[in-house]
């Protein structure tokens, strides 16, 4: 059995996210049940979320409730080393229910275990998130 590096896994995953327009199933299905997601900063969705359900309730659903359309993930670069990779990407075309343009830049540090994401440390535009929630 060939082991896939985090970089290879994330290249495939982000390509599929981009192709599907950020399909919820494509996004959520690879998150491990015991994953840890750290959304950095001081926004309405910032914090450390332990477990897939905590992330869905604390980040994914609040964002989904405020978005008409999720931004498309356009990868700028992926730098990987074993089970960890950094993904810099531009989210374009996101639209808030309040009319906010939710296009923004991201950088996620991602730990991949097998074919599952076990940890994410996310950096993103705090101002855009605040505008989305206002």
Would you give an account of this structure?
- The structure is a single chain.
- It contains four helices and eight strands.
- It has helices at 6-20, 24-28, 52-66, 126-133, and strands spanning 31-39, 47-50, 67-69, 72-81, 84-92, 95-96, 104-113, 116-124.
- By secondary structure, the protein is an alpha+beta fold.
- The chain has a single domain, classed as Nuclear Transport Factor 2, Chain: A (Roll).
- The strands form two sheets. The chain has a six-stranded mixed sheet, covered by helices on one side.
- It starts with 5 loop residues before the first helix and ends with a helix.
- The longest helix has 15 residues, at 6-20.
- Strand 7 and strand 8 (116-124) form a beta hairpin.
- This is Nuclear transport factor 2 family protein.
- Residues 11-119 form the SnoaL-like domain.
- InterPro entries: NTF2-like_dom_sf, SnoaL-like.
Distance between the termini: 49 Å
Helical stretch tally: 4
Helical amount: 25-40%
The secondary-structure class comes to: alpha+beta
Could you name the CATH topology? Nuclear Transport Factor 2, Chain: A
CATH architecture: Roll
What sequence of helices (H) and strands (E) makes up the elements? HHEEHEEEEEEH
Task: Based on the model shown, name its key terms.
globular; 4 helices; 134 residues; single chain; six-stranded mixed β-sheet; 8 strands; alpha+beta; Nuclear Transport Factor 2, Chain: A; 32% helix; two-stranded antiparallel sheet
């Amino acid at each position: 059995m060939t082991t896939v590096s985090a970089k290879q896994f994330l290249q495939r995953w982000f390509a599929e996210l981009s192709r599907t327009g950020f399909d919820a199933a494509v996004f959520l299905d690879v998150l491990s049940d015991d994953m840890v997601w750290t959304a950095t900063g001081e926004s309405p969705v910032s914090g450390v979320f332990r477990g897939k359900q905590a992330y869905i309730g604390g980040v994914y659903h609040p964002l989904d409730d405020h978005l008409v359309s999720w931004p498309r993930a356009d990868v700028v670069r992926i730098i990987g080393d074993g089970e960890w990779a950094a993904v810099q990407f531009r989210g374009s075309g996101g639209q808030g229910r309040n009319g906010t343009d939710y296009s923004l830049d991201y950088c996620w540090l991602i730990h991949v275990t097998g074919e599952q994401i076990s940890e994410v440390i996310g950096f993103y535009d705090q101002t855009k998130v605040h505008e989305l929630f206002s």
